């Protein structure tokens, strides 16, 4: 039986009453090291325009998560902090034991998370084969700030930025030398260790080396009523190392080099014959080089990156008397060049332009071994080989104008993308009825953007915007014929891009000292969204599917956020998001018209209190997520839930800090998907140091 905190009662609570409820429940425990020093609208951001701009100068909705807020939130993975950001939905099917959590913006979820573009220091980390992001590889102790640009950002960033852009910006050393570290231990025998070494010279050279290790015995994510003798605990073991070196005191030639190594092995919670049971293993290597300069009026930024991921998956299943196993062995490459230049033509006019070249490929593709047998001894195997490449060539330009001493700011941008699929290859010993022909295919997309910001009153700022976004297909859909979660599927190399047009109006206010309020309303229509449809063929008695551009969608939404410094060291943050995301047209499946997009809750609200004092620093954060659906037909409903996180910390001596972190304070174990239950309460004790 799932242990919930009065779920039936909570589900009857209307979202408009949620924020007072959260506040009332948390008056005695407040917050941590986070302070509202940037409460007013003076926050500088770069993601929205690729130029440094105050929030009041950008005609878009942007949320900024600074390092102090990250440090004040109980979390094991960096995406945990994003749960409290308005407009974002985070789905981890098994908590930190999830392989690739879905982090989506404004209802644009799906079978992949590639409708949200994720950057690290401006470099994309979405893979071309699945479109997802391995959030587990990102070390939260390296993050200086997170900028969340909401709404289509394709005019600057191209593919994947339909829902928006999440840019994680890493720390730079500020002292001659600094050593930071932490050790934590908690529920499920979870051990984490972090170490960060930073150095900087007076001449402007700097370097950092960071490392983390995370291991946990895990938990069983299948509810007791549905467990079989083969369901075991999900486990994890991760290690990551990142090294950076750079120089930043030149006017025109500042550089940085980065190399990351990440190793990740997660037990999938199922074991029949294999000694370790089912597991997935990600081995990732990332290289990034950056060159930038700024002479006061002209700024340029050049980045090169190369990412290699070796993905290995052991999967065994027992369905009735039939045992089957398949292994996936895939090598995935992503590489690219990004160039951006901006020039102030006058004090009122800035022109920005750039280009992007990138390529993603599967070399060796996915290699399946599928014994069709009743036991492990029968050596009958099928092999399936997939390969292919996807290339993008893009150029963009953006013009920013200000009028009436900055009271009116106008922005117009346009980007052209040419995306091509080539070198598709499919080989199989499998008795497929039809083998799709993987012909080369090319398509293009124009992505315009218009925005207007009005600042006639110092304490009030409003904006209007229109933006177009698109998402080219991923290699899994273009080249992969094989066995997916939906069943057997064909590749479809002729898939076109999804597209989205977004219309938005927003308001930012400072109605009183140390009080900030913001709100926005938007409407978006999407065309040619990808869905699985049946081909009419079958394999081993199961229908074969293929991905097609067959649906239109619409999304209506609103967001509101309040930040208030109640007293010195005592701060409040609260927000609410409304999202109505539905299928508008689906000729091949009229029964799905007007159904909600899966994993797109209508209501999400959160409230946080932070208290910093001489005795103890405390933060308490509450989150409500309304009901959502885990399938296209909306037959599998996931109930809404409320969860609360708590952190208490205290400085010991000069260089040490101890903290108690509790995620899911009330042990509200809920269904995060149609199959898996969340881990529930996680209690962690941590000791951190700084020298």
CATH fold naming: Maltoporin, Chain A
CATH architecture designation = Beta Barrel
- Strand % is over 45%
Number of strands: 36
Radius of gyration: 25 Å
CATH superfamily heading: TonB-dependent receptor, beta-barrel domain
How many discrete domains? 1
General form: globular
Describe the structure.
The chain is mainly β. The two termini are about 50 Å apart. The protein is built from five helices and 36 strands. The chain has a 22-stranded antiparallel beta barrel. A five-stranded mixed β-sheet has the order 3-9-10-7-8. It is globular. The chain has a single domain (about 5-690), classed as TonB-dependent receptor, beta-barrel domain (Maltoporin, Chain A).
Question: Summarize this, please?
Answer:
The chain is mainly β and 691 residues long. Helix content is 4%, strand content 57%.
């Amino acid at each position: 039986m799932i242990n919930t905190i009065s779920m039936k009662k909570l589900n009857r609570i209307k979202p408009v009453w949620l924020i007072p409820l959260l506040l009332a429940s948390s008056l005695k425990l407040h917050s941590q090291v986070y302070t509202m020093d940037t409460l007013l609208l003076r926050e500088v951001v770069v993601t929205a325009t690729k130029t440094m701009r105050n929030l009041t100068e950008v005609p878009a909705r942007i949320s900024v998560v600074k390092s102090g807020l990250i440090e004040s939130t109980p979390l094991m993975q960096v995406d945990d902090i994003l749960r409290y950001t308005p407009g974002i939905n985070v789905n981890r099917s098994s908590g930190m034991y999830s392989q690739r959590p879905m982090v989506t913006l404004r209802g644009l979820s799906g079978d992949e998370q590639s409708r949200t573009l994720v950057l690290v220091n401006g470099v994309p980390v979405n893979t071309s084969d699945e479109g997802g992001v391995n959030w587990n590889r990102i070390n939260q102790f390296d993050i200086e700030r997170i900028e969340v640009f909401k709404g289509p950002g394709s005019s600057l960033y191209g593919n994947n930025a339909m829902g928006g852009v999440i840019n994680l910006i890493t720390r730079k050393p500020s002292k001659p030398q600094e050593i930071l570290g932490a050790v934590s231990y908690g529920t499920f025998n979870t051990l984490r260790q972090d170490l960060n070494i930073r150095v900087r010279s007076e001449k402007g050279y700097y370097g950092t080396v960071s490392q983390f290790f995370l291991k946990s015995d895990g938990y069983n994510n299948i509810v007791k009523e549905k467990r079989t003798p083969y369901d075991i605990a999900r486990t994890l073991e991760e290690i990551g190392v990142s090294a950076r070196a750079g120089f930043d005191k030149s006017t025109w030639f500042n550089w940085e080099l980065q190399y990351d190594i990440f190793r990740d092995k997660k037990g999938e919670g199922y074991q029949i014959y294999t000694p370790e049971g089912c597991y997935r293993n990600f081995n990732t290597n990332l290289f990034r080089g950056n060159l930038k300069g700024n002479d006061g009026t002209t700024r340029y930024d050049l980045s090169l990156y190369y990412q290699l991921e070796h993905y290995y998956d052991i999967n065994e299943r027992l369905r009735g008397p039939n045992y089957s196993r398949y292994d996936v062995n895939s090598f995935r490459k992503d590489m690219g060049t990004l160039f951006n230049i901006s020039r102030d033509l006058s004090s009122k006019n800035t022109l920005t332009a750039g280009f992007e070249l990138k390529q993603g490929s599967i070399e060796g593709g996915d290699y399946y071994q599928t014994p069709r047998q009743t036991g492990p001894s029968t050596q009958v195997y099928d092999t399936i080989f997939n390969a292919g490449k996807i290339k993008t060539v893009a150029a963009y330009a953006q013009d920013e104008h200000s009028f009436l001493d900055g009271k009116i700011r106008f922005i117009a941008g346009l980007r052209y993308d040419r995306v091509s699929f080539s070198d598709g290859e499919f080989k199989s010993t499998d008795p497929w009825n039809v083998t799709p022909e993987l012909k080369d295919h090319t398509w293009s997309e124009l992505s315009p953007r218009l925005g207007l910001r009005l600042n006639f009153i110092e304490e009030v700022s409003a904006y209007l915007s229109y933006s177009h976004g698109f998402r080219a297909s991923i290699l899994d859909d273009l080249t992969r014929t094989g066995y997916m979660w939906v069943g057997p599927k064909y590749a479809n190399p002729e898939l076109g891009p999804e597209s989205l047009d977004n219309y938005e109006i927003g308001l930012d206010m400072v109605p009183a000292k140390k009080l900030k309020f913001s709100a926005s309303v938007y409407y978006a229509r999407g065309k040619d969204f990808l869905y699985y449809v049946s081909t009419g063929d079958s394999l081993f008695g199961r229908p074969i599917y293929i991905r097609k551009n067959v649906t239109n969608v619409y999304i209506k939404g609103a967001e509101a956020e309040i930040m208030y410094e109640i007293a010195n060291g005592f701060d409040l943050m609260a927000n609410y998001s409304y999202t109505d995301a539905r299928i508008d047209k689906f000729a091949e499946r009229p029964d799905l018209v007007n159904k909600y997009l899966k994993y797109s809750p209508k209501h999400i609200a959160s409230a946080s209190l932070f208290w910093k004092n001489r005795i103890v620093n405390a933060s308490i954060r509450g989150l409500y997520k309304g009901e959502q659906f885990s399938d296209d037909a909306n037959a599998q409903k996931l109930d809404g839930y409320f969860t609360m996180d708590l952190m208490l910390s205290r400085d010991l001596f000069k260089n040490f800090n101890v903290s108690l972190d509790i995620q899911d304070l009330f042990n509200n174990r809920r269904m995060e998907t149609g199959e898996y239950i969340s881990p529930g309460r996680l209690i962690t004790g941590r000791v951190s140091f700084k020298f």
